[in-house]
Specification:
There is one protein chain. It contains 10 helices and 11 strands. With 293 residues, the protein is an alpha/beta fold. The chain folds into 2 domains: 86 residues, Rossmann fold (3-Layer(aba) Sandwich); 134 residues, 3-Layer(aba) Sandwich (Rossmann fold). Bound molecules: guanine. The site of guanine has 7 residues, from strand 4.
């Protein structure tokens, strides 16, 4: 069994990016600039944005964070978005989700200029992805594809089962896996909460991608011997036996499934660390105007 090491892979990617940024700066090209907008005090979002900022800086990027109070109106936020769309120094930016309830996330995400939408959430980028055109692929599906590529997982003609149909993971990864290319060219089944016979379908997968948001949902009987298992879940569960009193687990019952899988991502240290690396990759593409010219 091969453990797919997302932490190491993300570090490798950050180093590759840092080298490229250093050579850009040597040539007199400005450093890529990633901005982030965060509204309110959600602790998980604060941690996530702080981590993005730290890693962006470590890669040699310029990083700016706009921290706005929870009471910010939608109009005010749209004003910040207009400002970032127009700022020629900002190559790409993200609006951290979730936004407070009084703000319509769709309105906000659609105001982001597609060429600066390094999260890949704007309908133009989603549409371009679905059509197989150059675009910013959202961080999690991008990270999954990168792990499959770097671990040289054979996907051509393989049965890939995706569990979960979210707009940010299940749906895009199912599209990418079915598209022409490497990784890709797989025969994809997308399962969700209304799927009949989900366990039997999962058990036929050569590649099983679990993004269903339920701790330990994928048990050993749902996994084929030799399957590649990608666990996108991350859940904090109580664990009185640990010092902190909690433990992070994925959507997969790791202990049992690891005995059957040929490759598996751990939680933590699998898909999670890849997301920020993906965001940096997208921002570098934005700085180089690779997608929109
Ligand atoms: N909240 C949780 N994950 C993400 C992400 O990838 N992008 C943004 N903007 N918000 C998030």
């Amino acid at each position: 069994m091969i453990l797919i090491d997302g932490k190491q892979t993300a570090e490798d990617i950050r180093l590759e990016i840092a080298r490229e940024v250093a050579s850009m700066i040597d040539k007199g090209i400005k450093a890529p600039h990633l901005a982030a907008v965060i509204v309110g005090e959600d602790p998980a979002s604060q941690t996530y944005v702080a981590s993005k900022e730290k890693q962006a800086k470590a890669a040699g990027f310029t990083s700016t964070v706009y921290r706005l109070p929870a009471a910010t109106t939608e109009q005010e936020l749209l004003g910040v978005i207009d400002f970032l769309n127009d700022d020629p120094d900002v190559d790409g930016y993200i609006v951290q989700l979730p936004l407070p309830g009084h703000i319509n996330s769709n309105t906000v995400l659609q105001a982001v200029a597609p060429e600066k939408d390094v999260d890949g959430f704007h309908p133009v980028n989603v549409g371009r992805m679905a059509l197989g055109l150059p675009c910013y692929v959202p961080a999690t599906p991008h990270g999954i594809m990168e792990l499959l590529r770097r671990y040289q997982v054979e996907t051509t003609g393989k049965k890939c089962v995706v569990l979960g149909r979210s707009h940010i993971v299940g749906s895009p990864v199912s599209i990418l896996m079915s598209q022409k290319g490497t990784p890709g060219d797989a025969t994809v089944t997308l399962c969700h909460s209304k799927t009949a016979g989900l366990a039997q379908i999962a058990a036929e997968a050569d590649i099983l991608i679990a993004a269903i948001g339920k701790p330990g949902f994928v048990t050993a009987d749902m996994v084929k011997e030799g399957a590649v298992v990608i666990d996108v879940g991350i859940h904090r569960i109580e664990a009185p036996d640990t010092k902190s009193g909690f433990r992070l687990v994925g959507d997969v019952d790791f202990e049992a499934v690891a005995k059957k899988a040929s490759m598996i991502t751990p939680v933590p240290g699998g898909v999670g660390p890849m997301t920020i690396a993906s965001l940096l990759q997208n921002t570098l593409k934005a700085a180089k105007k690779e997608i929109y010219g």
